[in-house]
DNA sequence: CGATTTTCATTTGTCTGACATTTGTGCTTG
DNA sequence: CAAGCACAAATGTCAGACAAATGAAAATCG
């Protein structure tokens, strides 16, 4: 691990990059202990605060974890699916909120990916996942439910559908789409949409999943997408009219 | 922005979290300038190195950028699709390499998502994208091409297919899948696969895309998936036999 | 007066040295 | 032998200082 003395970039960024490369390349394996901060400082010929800034950068990406005490130090972290989900959701949320992504584009991407799960979910869905979905549908039918709770239930429903595919990589990839976009969509459309209609579609989707009918699931998801789009366009049109 | 004095977590992590929340919630908007490090240190009642560690954590997630000099400081960064791609790829690569994800699972997820692009790509693909794909196919047909170059060309080919959907959100979501998993798959299967067969499938996919035939694209992607899986299983079986 | 140069204040980047806190280890002692 | 204690090592935090970059204001010159 070496850094380029001629680079103008921050030393802490260079050091972080060097260590990251060592991890990605496999030079540092999972649970390996990095040299102590003092040793790293000596090795890179910088001060300890600079090394610490580099380590914090890596910690922010869940690449390392630190432990205090005698046998402590910085260790290469096994990036869990849970941690990766979290980062994925944060990044996706910010990406959407900062880039004026049109509703149509976000909606299209989200449903395209969700439909990709349909064949797998139809094949592998468990009773647990069906039960979760039916429970959420029941909650969504309660008259007194707040908009926030309805939205949260909606997210849980769709995640159960995605998890039904039984593929953790796919679930990870979709976490960003469902958890980041669904609230965004709900925020825009919650005032106008018909809960009855959504509950009806959710019920039909669950039935199709129970019957292991992938084509039906895909068609119903397309219906849900079309309905969501229609509501959003109506709201946009009304806003323009004013 | 406040931190909990009773928390046992690192101060720099708490401060980073507080600022991150302010950004995500919209309290700090894009290009807004954060208080100077000295002011933040004063505000949170911590030292400047601690504040700096917090800021480096945020910088590692591309949430802020810093600038030196009189009018410098830390600014809320507009998270670009490019930056998000990069993070997505790093995270996906590590997730796959550290979690003993089976080849089958990764392969299934990757092709499921890519097939999700097929209908949109068939509708919107441009001449440029077709040209890119044909150029890559031509490169892949060169006899003297190294395995690394063939793999890189393969990635470019599939990215052009994905970008053909004309949906940046979808492209972003798939960046992790294609750029992280494709090299992994190539690394495993490159020794046994038939380049002729892959080139033939790529050609057929490009033809189907030119003809705007989504079902055909999906079927051919399924063929490619099946072929990749078959090779991987053969290699695994041979390894077991030894 | 206008253009150029100089100075200067502000801010981040880095260093030094120190102390606090945590935690495993091994020694001491009952 | 076991409980407790001192110690060492490592991270977490702090204070103060200087270096370097950079834009703005002031001074200078044609």
UniProtKB/TrEMBL annotation, chains A, B:
Keyword Transcription regulation among UniProt keywords: yes
Domain HTH gntR-type: 9-79
Keyword Transcription attached: yes
GO MF entries: DNA binding; DNA-binding transcription factor activity
CDD domains found in the cross-reference section: WHTH_GntR
Pfam family, one: FCD
Coiled coil regions, renumbered to chain: none
Keyword annotations of the record: DNA-binding, Transcription, Transcription regulation
SMART domains (UniProt xref): FCD (SM00895), HTH_GNTR (SM00345)
Native source species: Thalassobius vesicularis
The protein's name: FadR family transcriptional regulator
